């Protein structure tokens, strides 16, 4: 996912067009201006490297090599900016000199866009949660048809405002404008959840690779060569699928009590953003594979055998063992840092 400077512009043009170092990757060393290179993660080790061409030779220089070969002091401004590049590659696939620094590193907001359907879905779910809180039986609804039915009811707006008033009372807000204060905070929370909704749709596309492997397993049920490859791929794909699913389940469990969320709004938003960023970072590597599989026709064919081998190579490289990728564990550790010893939803 490239930032806002296109690959056709050279580094010096990018620097001229960009802002300052506080918001953009502006380097002073001539190597970044003279070579049309970009930063990304190496294909196998997933470490930050500088991709550049020397004549007909394409090179991927790890940052330690880059600094040594071009005499870049790690403590210099450029050296420190390379550290920011390393962090930025958690949020975008490609960074070129002069690109803007991902917003996740500047103010915590997401650097990628969402669609109106995700905003609507998030807003409906949160508003239903608030309205049901006012009714005395808080609930989270995920069925899209049911969400549309509930929010379209004639009495829904009155129920929602009643929930806002009850929340304001529980929060101890002063009378006069207290309801609007709660509404603003709920709207802000819905904006944060919007990105989770977009990631759920993205995860469904990733899940389609697993479904495709399962369907091909039946098509190759008697093939002694391809069937074992499919089985190995299915064994490897299970762990990351369960881990992604676990993050979504955990996140929605944590925001299932709206009063607790509003009482500790800052830490909850930080936790939602941690989840968002970890999910986004974990899903970026799947984009190429998802594109390869999106037009799958379930049948025995040479093209599908190529797809199976590609999927197996991807999984064996990125998820060689079931216990190697524990996103839920990482987020639990971050949750403890955000909330101290107190449980999120206790």
From TrEMBL:
Source superkingdom: Bacteria
Name assigned to this protein: Uncharacterized protein
Species whose genome carries this gene: Oceanibaculum indicum
């Amino acid at each position: 996912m490239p930032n806002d400077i296109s690959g056709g512009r050279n580094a010096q043009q990018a620097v001229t067009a960009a802002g300052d170092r506080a918001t953009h990757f502006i380097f002073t060393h001539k190597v970044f201006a003279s070579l049309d290179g970009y930063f990304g993660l190496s294909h196998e080790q997933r470490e930050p490297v500088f991709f550049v061409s020397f004549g007909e030779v394409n090179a991927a220089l790890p940052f330690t090599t880059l600094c040594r070969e071009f005499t870049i002091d790690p403590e210099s401004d450029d050296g420190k900016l390379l550290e920011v590049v390393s962090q930025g590659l958690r949020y975008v696939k490609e960074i070129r000199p002069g690109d803007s620094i991902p917003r996740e590193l500047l103010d915590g907001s997401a650097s990628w866009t969402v669609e109106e359907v995700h905003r609507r879905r998030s807003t409906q779910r949160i508003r239903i949660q608030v309205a049901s809180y006012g009714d005395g039986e808080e609930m989270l609804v995920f069925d899209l048809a049911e969400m549309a039915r509930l929010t379209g009811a004639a009495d829904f707006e009155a129920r929602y405002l009643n929930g806002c008033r009850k929340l304001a009372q529980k929060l101890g807000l002063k009378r006069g404008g207290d309801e609007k204060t709660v509404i603003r905070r709920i709207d802000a929370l819905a904006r944060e959840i919007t990105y989770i909704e977009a990631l759920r749709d993205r995860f469904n596309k990733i899940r389609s690779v697993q479904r495709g492997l399962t369907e091909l397993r039946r098509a190759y049920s008697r093939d002694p060569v391809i069937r074992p490859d499919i089985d190995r791929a299915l064994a490897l794909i299970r762990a990351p699928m369960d881990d992604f699913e676990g993050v979504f389940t955990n996140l929605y469990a944590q925001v299932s009590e709206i009063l607790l969320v509003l009482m500790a709004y800052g830490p909850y938003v930080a936790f939602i953003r941690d989840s968002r960023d970890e999910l986004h970072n974990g899903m970026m590597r799947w984009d190429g594979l998802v594109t390869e599989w999106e037009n799958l026709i379930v049948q025995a064919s040479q093209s599908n055998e190529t797809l199976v081998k590609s999927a197996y190579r991807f999984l064996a490289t990125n998820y060689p063992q079931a216990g190697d990728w524990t996103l839920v564990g990482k987020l639990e550790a971050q949750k403890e840092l955000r909330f101290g010893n107190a449980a999120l939803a206790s």
